[in-house]
Amino acid sequence: MVNVAIVGCNGKMGGFVAQAVNDNKNTQAIFGVDAFGENKYDFPVYKSFDEAESKPDVIIDFSNPAALDGMLKYALENSVPCVICTTGFSAEQVEKIKAASEKIAVFYSGNMSLGINLLIALSKQAAKVLGGSFDIEIVEKHHNLKVDAPSGTALMIADAISETLENEPQYVYDRHAYRKKRAENEIGIHSVRGGTIVGEHEVIFAGHDEVVTITHQAQSKEVFAAGSVNAAVFLAAQGAGMYDMTSMLSSVL
To answer: pTM for this structure?
Structure first.
C-alpha cells in the first residue's frame, strides 16, 4: 500500500485526486496539505507540512506554485518522492524542481492524461515528417477560471516538437503585437478561456494546400487525477531522478 499526502486537497483537482486515491486499491491518503486548512475528509488536513505527524510514501501536488517551496523543503528533509502536476511555475521554480530530483524521485508533468501524451508522441512524429515545410500552430482551450496562459500542456507540446526540429523555433504567443509576415521557425501558441472547458489541445501543421490537425479533448478532470495516482504508485518504487509520463509508460510497455 502506497501512503499518499495530497497538496491542495481542498481545491477542485485536490478533491478529484482524493477520490482517485480512495478508488485505487494500491493507495491510501494519510493526510492533506491546504492553505485553507478546512477538513472535509476522513484524513487530517494541515495548513502546512510543518504540522504533519506522519510520513507519506509519495506526495501528490495539484495545487498552486506558491506551495512549491514548503513542499520541496519537506520532501528533501524526509526523502519523500513528489508527483508534481501543478502548472504555472516560473523558470526559477522549474530549476528548483530539477535540483530536487538529484536527491529524490520527482515525477513532473504539465498533463497527467494518457491521451495527451499520445498526442505529444504523434506531434513529434508529424514534426519529423512535416516540420521543415509546414507551419506549426498550437491552440489550447480551458475553463474561464484557469489563471496561467498558455497552459503547461501547450508548452509541453511545443517543447516536444522543438526537440525534433533542425532549427530552434521561436514561440509566438498570439499575434496582436506582430505586424509582419510569419517567420518560418515560429511555433504559434494561442490560448482560449471560456465556460467550463476542461481542456482541449490542437496541434496544426499547415502546409501548401493541405493541413494536418491532431486534437485531444479531456471530458473530465478525473482523467488527470487518476493519472497522478498511477504516477504515485510508479514513483514510490523509483530512485532519485526526474520522471514523466513517458518514463512510466516505458516501464509497462
So the answer is: 0.74
Annotation marks residue 180 as catalytic:
no
pLDDT digits (tens, 9 = 90+) for 101-145: 999 999 998 788 888 888 998 999 999 999 779 999 999 999 999
Among residues 142, 201, 216, 221, the one annotated as catalytic is: 142
Whether 143 is a known active-site residue: answer no
Kindly state the DSSP code that residue 49 receives in the 8-state scheme: G
Q: Phi first, then psi: what are they for 220, rounded to 5°? A: -155, 150
Task: Provide the 3-class DSSP secondary structure of residue 122.
Answer: helix
- Say if residues 33 and 9 touch (Cβ distance below 8 Å): yes
Average pLDDT over residues 17-35: 95
Strand partners, 188: 137, 172
55, 141, 146, 190: which is the annotated catalytic residue?
146
